Please model this.
Amino acid sequence: MDKIVIKGGKPLKGAVKISGAKNAVLPMMAATLLAEGRFEIRNVPDLRDVKTMAHLLRIIGAKVAFAESRLVIDTSDCGFYEAPYELVKTMRASIYVLGPLLARYGQARVSLPGGCAIGPRPVDLHLKGMEDLKATVVLDKGYIVAKARKLRGSSVSFDVSSVGATGNVLMASVLAEGRTVINNAAREPEISALAEFLVKMGAEIEGIGSGQLRIHGVSKLEPVSFDVIPDRIETGTFMIAAAITGGEVEIQKTDPKLVASLTSKMRMANVMVEEGESVIFCKAPERLKPTNVTTSVYPGFPTDLQAQWMTLMCLADGSSVIQETIFFDRFAHVAELRRLGAQIQVNENVSIVTGVGKLIGATVMSSDLRASACLILAGLIAQGRTDVLRIYHLDRGYEKIESKLVGLGANTWREEGSS
Ligand code: UD1
Model:
C-alpha cells in the first residue's frame, strides 16, 4: 500500500483547482442504468471510487470509457442485475444501483455494503423505500434481493435524513407508475444535482433542494450529457489547509454557496475568506480562535469535514467542542492525531480539542477517507516528517491531492507500496 510523506511547516500559497464531486458523480453513474444509450458526464474526478463504479457498470453490461475528466457510458447492452460482494465491500455507494436496476429491469441482487470504517451504517431506509414502492425485498446470504414487476408510486417518509436512501428511492421512483412523495428527503447539493440529471433525462421531479421531493413517474428516459458540480468537501479541505499552514490560497473552479457553513465557521475562527462567483480566497490569521462545530445535514456543517476541522482546532488558541451527530462514532482519527501531539478528549459523540500550538511529525495510519485528509493536514503543519500510511482511503475521494499540495508549495510526496 502507498503512503504519503510530508515535511511540515511550509505555508501554502497560490491557486488550486477543485475537481468534480465524488458524491455527485457516483449516483449519476448508477442513474445511467435507467435509460438505454450513450451518456456523457463531464468534470469527473479521477478517483478509485469512480473506477469501482465504472467496473460495476461494466459487470452489469454497460460500456464505460473514462479519459480527461470525461466519462462516456453506453447502457445499450445491459443484462446482468447483480452487484457482487467483491466490489460492494470496497465502496458502499455501489448500493446506488439497487433503485435503477429495480426500476428498469424489475430485479436486482446487490451485496450488503462495506466502505469506510465509520461505525455502523445500515441500509434499512433504502430497503424500506423500495418496499414502499411495492418491491419485494429479501436478504439472502449477504445479498439484498429485490423484485417488482412494476414499481408503484407511493409516499416514502424517512425517520432519518439519508443521502443514499433519498438518491436510491428517487432513482427508483422516476420510472414508477404514478406519483411518489419523498418526505424528509436529503437536501445535500449532490442529491439536487442527481435530480437535475434525472430531469434532463426526462424525469418529472418537483421540490428539488427541499425536504420534500415529488415525482411523477414517466414510462421512458433518455441518455444525456451533464457537468458534475464541484466537490465541496475537497473545497473545504483546501480552505482548512490554507488556514492551518499560515498560508493564502485561491481555490478555483468551486462554488462558495456549497461551503457556506464552513465559511461562517472559518470567519468565526478569524480566517479571512473572500468569495467570488466560482472562487474562494482564504488567508490564515495570526492566531486561530477556538470555534465549536456540530455536524448536521445540509446546509449545516458537513460530517465529511469534521475530521479536518478537528485538525485545525488542534492549532487554535484554546479549547473547542466538536459534536458529531451524523455518524456517532466517527472519531477514529483522534488516536492518530494524538500520536502527533494533539490533546483531544472524546466522550461519546462529543470531543473537546485543546489547542497545542504545535504538532510533531510521526507515522500515522488512515482509517477512512476523511480521516486520511485530516492526517495530511496535520502533517502539513507538524514539525519534522509525517508518514501517512494506508492512503488508499484517500485515493477513493481526493483527486491528485499530493500534486495539488505540491503546486501550493508543500513538501510532500508519495512512496509506492511501502506499507
Ligand atoms: C453520504 C456520503 C458520505 C457522507 C454522508 C453524510 C456518498 C457516496 N456518501 O453517505 O460521504 O458522510 O452521506 O452526509 O454520498 N442511515 C440509516 N439507515 C439507512 C441509511 C442511513 O440509519 O438505510 C443513517 C446513517 O447511519 C447515518 C445517517 O443515516 O447516521 C446519514 O447517512 P447517509 O446520509 O445515508 O450517508 P450515506 O448516503 O451512506
Remarks:
- The mean pLDDT is 95.
